[in-house]
Amino acid sequence: MPQPVAAGRAYPAEPPAISYDHSSLPTPTRHPKALLRPVCGQCFGIKRDGCTDGISPMYRMWRGPRRQRVAVYRCFGHGPQRSGCGAEILVDELDRAVIVLLSVDMRKHTELVFVAGDDRAEQISRLHDQAADAMRQGDYERSIQCMKDAAELEKQPSARPHWDEVERDITRGQHFASLDTDARREYLAKWRPVARVEDGQVLIEHIPSGLPGLQELARD
Ligand SMILES: [Zn+2]
Predict the structure, then answer these.
(1) How far is the CA of 110 from the centre of ligand 1 (A)?
(2) Quick check: 178 pLDDT over 50?
(3) Cβ atoms 58, 109 nearer than 8 A
(4) What's the gap in Å between 44 CA and the centre of ligand 1?
(5) Cα of 198 to ligand 1 centre, how many Å?
(6) Cα(86) to centroid of ligand 1, in Å?
(7) In the prediction, which pLDDT does 169 show?
(8) For labelling, which of 6, 124, 163, 217 has a CA lying 20 to 30 Å from the CA of 74?
(9) Do 28 and 105 fall into the same domain?
(10) What distance in angstroms lies between residue 206's CA and the mean position of ligand 1's atoms?
(11) Looking at the structure, do residues 68 and 32 belong to the same domain, yes or no?
């Protein structure tokens, strides 16, 4: 039996994430933005009413009375009628676990380096000028040679400006450990851990970057 669909109600496609982040409320203590944008590991891959693609983001929120408030990442579901599965993970615990995990990454750190490329257009136009000068001076042989050189240059592929990935002599873990909180958050923006708690232990899986639905999630 297909589920009845509520008619005549327009749901916003994606509610703005800020409505879930209580750090934006005027409170005496300002909280920095959450370090992570986790995906709920409890309901990961399970297509349910409150999460139609099985990839449910977790948002940071505060729980408990003011003096004992604790920050948790809570599952919020995904899709037009999103709702969470009830899973929560303490922010401190997940942040710490992710920092430890990334700090022991032994792969080589790489950086993007800008390569300016070569601009042959300038050389070619200079040769054309020289050819014209030679022609005016009656030196036809030299003029023809300049034109030939220019034509030769035009045939060669010219290197466009581009970025090269260069391996550095430190590990990714060492690089990550050297970053401050803002830089870590930026580093982690492309790395969304799938996390859950089992027997009091935080378990983390890595989402492969090509996973369908992830582009959509990135806009949450
Ligand atoms: Zn969940």
Answers:
(1) 34
(2) yes
(3) no
(4) 7
(5) 13
(6) 6
(7) 94
(8) 6
(9) yes
(10) 16
(11) yes
The alpha carbon of 84 and the centre of ligand 1 are apart by a number of angstroms equal to 5
Residue 191 pLDDT level (bands cut at 50, 70, 90): confident
58/94 Cα distance (integer angstroms):
12
| Residue corresponding to tokens 């408030």 | 69
- Residue 89 Cα to ligand 1 midpoint, Å, equals 11
153 and 185 in one domain?
Answer: no
pLDDT score for 192: 84
Banded model confidence at residue 5, pLDDT cuts 50, 70, 90: very low
Residue 93 contacts residue 84 (beta carbons within 8 Å):
no
Distance 49 CA to ligand 1 centre (A): 12
Residue 2 lies in a domain: no
Residue 95 Cα to ligand 1 middle (Å): 18
Does residue 35 carry a pLDDT above 80?
yes
pLDDT at 88 over 50: yes
The Å distance, Cα 87 to ligand 1 centre, comes to 5
Q: Is the pLDDT of residue 19 over 80?
A: no
What integer pLDDT is reported at residue 28 of this predicted model?
52
**Would you say residue 167 lies in a domain?**
no
Q: Work out how many domains the chain is built from and give that number.
A: 2
Residue 76 has pLDDT above 80, yes or no: yes
The structure's pTM equals 0.61
Is 105 within a domain? yes
36 and 139, same domain (yes or no): no
In which domain, by residue range, is 21 found? 17-109+181-218
In a domain, 172, yes or no: no
| 143 and 200 inside one domain | no
User: How far is it, in rounded angstroms, from Cα 202 to Cα 97?
Assistant: 7
